């Protein structure tokens, strides 16, 4: 089959991404996209892609897209035999927790997370000893071992609801210190934080935002709550990736900057051609380890399969399911 015929077959997909992928670059992706679409049918597989994935993955091969909460919810509904997680390792673990009978693959085992690596199960046990009886709310950006030591999980989008749902005056919230501090400003619940940070969001500064406002008069600034509190204070709105996506859709600002990972703006801009998306942004090196070639290889060889120690799976699953029930 000629390359020209492949390009012709997947040409409708280019219409989705033509605003963010130059036409001259499109042929580079064609063979991988075409093969991935075929392999998904043959393998009875679905691809879940996080908002930080590049547009050729997010818009051209993914079946389910969204933030970590959306992916967790939708992972429970799929009928496929194989789930390929285009994201980082803790997301693939969460998908496996919720789908223990299905094969869950992650294309690159190096796709980790600075937050997940900032805390261990032993750290959580020590926190419980220090604060006996205080419930532990754990961000989904953590390992299964840490989730298993927790009472309930949360995402950046539902953290306040989760914290307040417990009906207690004090909680331990880990591992993201900045998310905990930002949520503490919104609730009367006392929050004990852990000193973990996202290597993407911790690099933003208030000066970055002030400079963007000078360079782009009238720009609306949306920030992720993993950013430092002084950065969130400079923004016009703070919310999860899903919240930011919805905000842009509802308000249609003439000009906006998303203070988060770079691919987020590319993926949202596809649906909002009248909105000018200004950068700066920061790349997540872990998310960018996932590529079309890696997804193709994952489906061809059924690697890398995610497995979870049965001794901790049930406890970790309970923490996630408690979150999803709210």
Please state the structural category.
Answer: alpha/beta
Q: Portion of residues in helices? A: 40-55%
Low-confidence stretches: none
Instruction: Please tally the helical runs, counting DSSP H or I stretches of 4 or more residues.
Output: 16
Oligomer: single chain
End-to-end separation:
50 Å
CATH architecture of the largest domain: 3-Layer(aba) Sandwich
Write the H/E string, N to C: HHHEHEHEHEHEHEHEHEHEHEHEHEHH
How many domains make up the 3D coordinates?
3
Total DSSP E strands: 12
Average of pLDDT: 95
Name the beta content range: 5-15%
* Coarse shape: globular
Strand order of the largest sheet: 2-1-3-4
Largest β-sheet summary = 4 strands, parallel
CATH superfamily of the largest domain: NadA-like
CATH topology of the largest domain: Rossmann fold
Radius of gyration, in Å, reads: 20 Å
The gist of it:
The chain has helices at 3-9, 11-17, 26-43, 55-58, 68-75, 89-98, 121-130, 144-148, 159-165, 177-184, 206-215, 229-234, 241-251, 262-269, 292-301, 310-324, and strands at 45-50, 64-66, 82-86, 103-105, 136-139, 152-154, 170-174, 190-193, 220-223, 237-238, 255-259, 276-278. By secondary structure, it is an alpha/beta fold.
């Amino acid at each position: 089959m000629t390359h020209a015929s492949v390009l012709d077959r997947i040409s409708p997909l280019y219409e989705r991404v033509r605003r963010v992928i130059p036409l001259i670059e499109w042929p580079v992706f064609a063979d991988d996209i075409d093969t991935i679409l075929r392999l998904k049918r043959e393998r009875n597989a679905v691809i879940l892609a996080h908002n930080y994935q590049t547009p050729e993955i997010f818009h051209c091969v993914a079946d389910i897209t969204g933030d970590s909460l959306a992916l967790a919810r939708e992972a429970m509904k799929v009928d496929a035999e194989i789930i390929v997680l285009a994201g980082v390792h803790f997301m693939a673990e969460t998908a496996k927790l919720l789908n223990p009978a299905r094969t869950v693959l992650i294309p690159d085992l190096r796709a980790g997370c600075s937050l997940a690596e900032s805390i261990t199960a032993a750290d959580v046990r020590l926190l419980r000893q220090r604060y006996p009886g205080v419930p532990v709310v754990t961000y989904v950006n953590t390992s299964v071992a840490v989730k298993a030591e927790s009472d309930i999980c949360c995402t950046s989008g539902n953290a306040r609801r989760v914290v307040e749902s417990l009906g207690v005056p004090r909680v331990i919230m880990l591992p993201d210190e900045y998310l905990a501090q930002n949520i503490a400003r919104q609730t009367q619940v006392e929050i004990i934080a852990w000193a973990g940070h996202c290597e993407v969001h911790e690099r933003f500064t208030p000066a970055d935002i002030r400079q963007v406002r000078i360079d782009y008069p009238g720009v609306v600034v949306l920030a992720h709550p993993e950013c430092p509190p002084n950065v969130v204070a400079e923004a016009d709105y703070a919310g999860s990736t899903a919240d930011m996506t919805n905000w842009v859709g509802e308000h249609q600002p003439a000009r906006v900057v998303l203070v988060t990972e770079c691919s987020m703006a590319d993926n949202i801009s596809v649906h909002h051609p009248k909105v000018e998306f200004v950068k700066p942004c920061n790349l997540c090196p872990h998310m960018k380890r996932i590529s079309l070639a890696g997804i193709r290889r994952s489906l061809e060889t059924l690697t890398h399969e995610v497995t979870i120690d049965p001794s901790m799976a049930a406890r970790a699953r309970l923490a996630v399911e408690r979150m999803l029930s709210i």
